[in-house]
Design brief:
CATH superfamily of the largest domain: Leucine Dehydrogenase, chain A, domain 1
CATH architecture of the largest domain: 3-Layer(aba) Sandwich
Number of helices: 17
Largest sheet: 5 strands, mixed
Shape: globular
Bound molecules: NADPH dihydro-nicotinamide-adenine-dinucleotide phosphate
CATH class of the largest domain: Alpha Beta
């Protein structure tokens, strides 16, 4: 670690205590950027790094709501407006009991670089609440969303800040949030993405993150003249990203053998085919059940409950070629990374945000596998959100093929940016450096152009 990185991290930790995920995300990026700063003293002089790690604005607010028993509940709401150098703040909302300021700052920070990589004009933001939608009735979720938007509406807008979904925020929640925004503002605008198709949503938005992560894996494989055909894939999670990752793996001839939720995981050696995937979609998106039911329905599968006493995740300990972590941050630690390598995995494409710890990342990089970090590999979701914004502005809807083609093209372009920047800065094949540097340069130059704001 260079002196500059050491000093910066010491100051960041002192100034932002108890935010370990934020420290982790920054450390990974600034280590890559040390290569850039040597060649570009102008970024050092303008203190671009010191500015980019400080959110432009942080909003925290009370979200009171009534549960079905008529009891008052209180949650905390957040929106981190991290960087608007290249466009309006853009990034999802996460509703999960683990949500806190540090987690949202890490996500907002990652989002700045990811959005820049998409080639579209979007700044970075992220928000959410420690509200847990699990086990809540539709009416409770609606009342919570309405209360959340009753504060958030004054801070966002189609040219200011455009939130979307993330963990715990899918089509149902976006609908309730949009309805409340429209009522309060008395205007129908593209202020949120991930909307329903009948009211301004884009085709392929639900599919985009998962499809994009698989397109990215296919691009990485193409550098070795290989394809996904016949490859065995480990997938974690069973929500939006995981479901469409499995769908695209099937489209490209691969075989997915695992899925999980926070209670445990299933291993289906026969492969998750289209019929089984439809079962998962119904289970998770309609009945809102647990992945355990998959193993009750399909006898080829084995269910293993989560065991918090283990220091590794057994999901990552099966023979495979590719891994698509699609649940949450830090789900692959050093031991998991080593287990993946021991089991033959040589392609990791991150659908989730920062699913691999710094130790795990180092193990992948040292081994020289095809490792696509989340800010590149999962950028397809926000890219199609950007396309949803364009369609809303034009008051037009593009066809499924048109949006999918654009998504595919964007994922290829992100891959190319990563490869070129990794090469240019002397670390060929290192997609971490490629993504961090490629995403950074555009934002840094825009910040220089716009002066000290
Ligand atoms: P969903 O809420 O649809 O699904 C999340 C899945 O991950 C669920 O199966 C959930 O299980 C599991 N999960 C969540 N938290 C934990 C945890 N702490 N431990 C174990 N399992 C957990 O979310 P998404 O699919 O939208 O998001 C998944 C990941 O992808 C996140 O990292 C998100 O930031 C990232 N991402 C999402 C994008 C999108 O477009 N949706 C875009 C880019 C990145 P359970 O139901 O039991 O909680």
């Amino acid at each position: 670690m260079s002196d500059f990185v050491k000093d910066l991290m010491a100051e960041l930790k002192a100034k932002n205590p108890a935010e370990p995920e934020f420290h982790q995300a920054v450390e990974e990026v600034v280590e890559s950027l040390a290569l850039v700063l040597e060649r570009h003293p102008e970024y050092r002089a303008a203190k671009i790094i010191e500015r980019i790690v400080e959110p432009e604005r942080v909003i925290m607010f009370r979200v009171p709501w009534l549960d079905d028993q008529g009891e008052v509940q209180v949650n905390r709401g957040f929106r981190i407006e991290m960087n608007s150098a290249i466009g309006p703040y853009k990034g999802g909302l996460r509703f999960h009991p683990s949500v806190n300021l540090g987690i949202l700052k890490f996500l907002a920070f990652e989002q700045v670089f990811k959005n820049s990589l998409t080639t579209l004009p979007m700044g970075g933001g992220k928000g959410g609440s420690d509200f847990d939608p699990k086990g809540k009735s539709d009416n409770e979720v609606m009342r919570f969303c309405q209360s959340f938007m009753s504060e958030l509406f004054r801070h966002i807008g189609p040219n200011t800040d455009v939130p979307a979904g993330d963990i715990g925020v899918g089509g149902r929640e976006i609908g309730f949030l949009f309805g409340q925004y429209k009522k309060l503002r008395n205007e129908f605008t593209g202020v949120l993405t991930g909307k329903g198709l009948n009211w301004g949503g884009s085709l392929i938005r639900p599919e985009a993150t998962g499809y994009g992560a698989v397109y990215f894996a296919a691009e990485m494989l193409s550098t070795r003249n290989e394809t996904l055909e016949g490859k065995t894939c480990l997938v974690s999670g069973s929500g939006n990203v995981a479901q469409y990752t499995v769908e695209k793996i099937l489209d490209l001839g691969g075989k997915a053998v695992t899925l999980s939720d926070s209670s445990g995981y299933i291993y289906d050696e026969a492969g998750i085919d289209r019929e089984k995937l439809e079962f998962v979609k119904e289970l998770k998106n309609v009945r809102r059940g647990r992945i355990k039911e998959y193993a009750e329905e399909f006898k080829s599968a084995v269910y293993t409950p989560a065991d918090p006493s283990l220091d590794y995740n057994p999901l990552w300990n099966h023979k495979a070629d590719c891994a698509f972590p699609s649940a949450t941050q830090n789900e692959i630690n050093g031991k998991d990374a080593q287990n993946l390598l021991n089991n033959g995995v040589y392609v990791v494409s991150e659908g989730a945000n920062m699913p691999t710890t710094l130790e795990g990342v180092k193990i992948f990089l040292d081994k020289g596998i095809l490792y696509g970090p989340g800010k590149a590999a999962n950028a397809g979701g926000v890219a199609v959100s950007g396309l949803e914004m364009s369609q809303n502005s034009l008051r037009l809807s593009w066809t499924r093929e048109e949006v999918d083609n654009r998504l595919h093209h964007i994922m290829k372009s992100i891959h190319k940016t990563c490869v070129e920047h990794a090469d240019r800065f002397g670390t060929p094949g290192n997609y971490v450096n490629g993504a961090n540097i490629g995403g950074f340069l555009k934002v840094a130059d825009a910040m220089l152009d716009q002066g000290l704001v």
